[in-house]
Amino acid sequence: MGKLATIDIIIFLIYFVVVASYGLWIYKKKKSESTGSKDYFLAEGSLTWWAIGASLIASNISAEQFIGMSGEGFFVGIAVAAYEWIAALALIIIAVWFIPIYLKNKIYTMPQFLERRYNKSVSLIMAVFWLFLYVIVNLTSILYLGALAIDTLLGGEHLHGIMIALLLMALLIGLGGMKVIGYTDVIQVAVLIIGGFATVYMALQIVDQRINGAAVGNALAGFNTLINEAPQHFKLILQKPTTTTTTLAMPQNLDVQKYVVLPGLAMYFAGQWIVNLNYWGCNQYITQRALGADLKTARTGILFAGFLKLFMPVIVMLPGIAAYVLYSKGHLPGFNGVKDGAYSAILGFLPSGLKGLAIAALTAAIVASLAGKVNSISTIFTLDIYKKYLKTDATEIQMVRTGRWVIIIAMMAALAFTWTDVLGIGGEGGFTFIQKYTGFISPGVFAMFLLGMFWKRTTGTAALVGVILGFVLAIFFNSFAVEIFGKETWMYTAFTYEKLENGVVHTITEIPFLINMGWSFFITIIAMILISLAGPKINPKAFAIDATMFKVDNRTLVLIVMTLLLLTALYVRFW
Known about the structure:
mainly alpha
């Protein structure tokens, strides 16, 4: 690994100059057209369908995918691709049924939806919730995992300097508003896809060379070698372990750890849908890209992102499997087997020039996500807290200025939390860390949005109870259910396993968190329905819905069918 060659530095600098110059050009070009808060926060009417789609991918594919999902690919295998492939299906649902409701009712932020549909109390509670979630969980994990990966490539002595550099790059883009973010994301996603595929191609060549002894590696032969050497890593559905208690000395111990993260077929009837539909449909960070567009543009952009999601596991997961095969055969001597280091271990093999491109791709993903995330934090605080509660007579200029200060403060907070990894992101495993702790509020939030959109009887009281109950249930199932009800019930199976961390053996008993999410969501839905039945048959704040809102044109239908056919083929092949 170690230092970069001159050509690597040149390639990286070219990437930086192109993105910075293009962002500055977009900022100056658009600045004269509009300076209002909606233009700054939402790029109202400015983003094309391809910019929306690219921005969705650039914001989604970040350090937790490159580092965290590659780590899960190393540990579990292709089963983790479910997060990407089910996301493609979730985006179809969002494009057809969710976005029309948002756009028809002129929704610009998620708290605004809750206020319109329910009341100010629910809106304020969730605005604060989202701000803490975005800063404490999402922003910190993106920054920490990204800086850690790049630092590993550079020899492991520059972590804090890299954190600061990433934040400064994101700051340059984020302060320009959503237009700058949206259009620079087009370049970012192009860089991360080109760099990502180049990394995968080279990794497969290395597998062919090291495992098969080929003089000149062949990528296809390398891929076939992965399948032959690690067939268990190419199973989408993990089998439920036959034993629920294991120790480090037992071979089943790893199987239990894998199943806890990705509980086989059961996750498709539980948390997997909640994770994806909540993330893509009820998340300011994501939906913000489409909320300033017309329906046709927004739908096409979202479906374009869904189509691209089908190919993301090749970039973010396959390097992890390559690292697993190389490591198991003794060809990664400098790698300690910690899953979140798998991607960096593969990058260490890359030749000069290609390593610079790979780091540029990783940086593009990190910076795009950081910029998009702080813009969403800024949008929620400014439009849903500052304007409504702190300064109701704020001018457009004051709102934009406040938004920019919030971006700076959020970045400083993220830096403070990641400076010494006080949240333990590295120990949990980056991708699992995000999914698990986001899952504490996802069941209640998604239940509140789903019933709020499609059941006119849902009341504000039910929504408030739902979001609190969903959170309490998630904590209950995660921390107390096993102690009270035992390890084996008709609702769940808990597993006990041992895990070695920093030379210390830890015994852990837990229910798979995706199962926890499923039950938390189901119970919350039932509670909200029962509470709402005590209210009026039609809530006066319910949204008007008609079938014409959900009709799609032929071009949209073609995109949907193409995505479904490819998704079906992937599941048939790797089931």
